[in-house]
Design goal:
Two copies of one chain form a homodimer.
Chain A: E1 10-14, H1 19-30, E2 35-39, H2 49-52, E3 60-62, E4 68-69, H3 72-82, H4 93-119, H5 125-150, H6 167-185, H7 192-197, H8 203-213, H9 216-221, H10 225-235
Helix pairs in contact in A: 1-3, 1-6, 4-5, 4-6, 5-8, 6-10
Chain lengths: ~240, ~240
């Protein structure tokens, strides 16, 4: 059995719906890394895909020499290391740690509530959503303000490392569009008005979100709302 | 309230028993990184420790300017980045990925069975231990052989990256001494004779283990058998 791949370029195996795979797509786009793409239908995986990944997960990045790279965080990190001019990882060791630590803490704060809300009994979903805003998003807002206090001088800016866009954004914010979709399915709009009603200030969080979600590479890598609906609506019995 | 720390050096907060903390200690020693050490009694934590880590875990590395670094893997990675001459992380992006991926896969293959065996009902412990040898250790042995086939020329050697000792060793093998202790509490010696009785070949695994465990920085960072006993014997009702 053979499988499709580029003979000369890196080949990315991905799926639009998957927030983990989107990390790899987005990182490659930000780094302007030339590569081929194969889309995998996760509900109907091609039989050859077991040759690419015995675990059948996306993303996988195939090197032109045939080595496969697994695990979205490690693939994104590889892209950042291979294209240092992208600035996706800073070169200073302490700044690198700060990116790593932000990813470690914040990724789960966005991914976990998405599924907790989606899987909650319908009458409890709005409550779970309000809880997530008050707890998880406030925590992220606080972490961003703490980073701001350390990003001084020429390094001031909207991102986790101030003016430098890094993996800290790519490896956390792909989970947010899924969370926002789940909120909307609860008839909640995740915005400053909602936060204000709950008595919390998420202005730094929204400033960050809006700047990142406006990046062309994010927009190109993101699933449509319709596609996300096909995933979450059945889970929520909608 | 104040807390003990060096004003000029990095300060490591650690505990000999903890395999996660040992990653940080070992990495600092391999990198010959000058630092101060504060030992935390995990069964009787000093009240000031909440100022160092609200989660009360070890290790924590404090920078001279007061920043705290959490999460053993990220601390070890920081040490490798800060002391590139240590070679604890290679500079080539694909080699870095290979270290990361080995850690991701193998750490759990050693840590998980340690606690599964320790917590099993006593009559099932030996069975669980045999299973772990046949499944987890064989998998590691296979991964090492696969790496060998890629480590060619001047890069041949005992370690995951051949001749280069890296975080691939530090961030996986601190779990092995705990696993070996748990085996010994089941009256099993984890060695080639045991593997042979089970019909599996772990010679590459033992070659790796023996070379790594002979390193002075490993030996200095490791807990004594007696200390490990005070942790595992009560868990196993011994």
């Amino acid at each position: 059995m053979s499988y499709p791949h580029s003979k000369t370029l890196m080949t990315l195996y991905t799926a639009k719906i998957c927030p983990f795979a989107q990390r790899a797509v987005w990182a490659l786009k930000e780094a302007k890394a030339e590569h081929a793409t194969e889309y995998i239908d996760l509900k109907n995986k091609p039989s050859w895909y077991s040759l690419v990944n015995p675990l059948l997960q996306v993303p996988v990045l195939r090197m032109p020499d045939g080595q496969f790279l697994y695990e979205s965080l490690l693939v994104a990190r590889f892209v950042a290391d291979k294209y240092p001019e992208s600035g996706l990882m800073p070169s200073d060791p302490l700044a690198r740690y700060n990116v790593d630590y932000f990813i470690e803490r914040v990724g789960g704060l966005l991914l976990k509530p998405t599924f907790e809300i989606a899987r909650a009994p319908s009458e409890e979903r709005v409550e779970k959503a309000n809880e997530a805003v008050k707890k998880n998003l406030v925590e992220i807002n606080t972490m961003l303000l703490e980073r701001d206090s350390k990003n001084t001088g020429g390094n001031k800016g909207t991102y986790v490392l101030g003016s430098q866009f890094t993996l800290a954004e790519i490896c956390t914010l792909t989970f947010l569009s899924r969370l926002e979709l789940v909120f909307s399915l609860c008839n909640l709009e995740l915005n400053e008005e909602m936060a204000s009603k709950l008595g919390v200030d998420l202005s730094r969080f929204f400033e960050w979100r809006n700047a990142v979600f406006a990046r062309p590479a994010y927009i190109e890598s993101a699933p449509t709302k319709d596609l996300m609906l096909t995933f979450f609506a059945p889970m929520m019995n909608l």
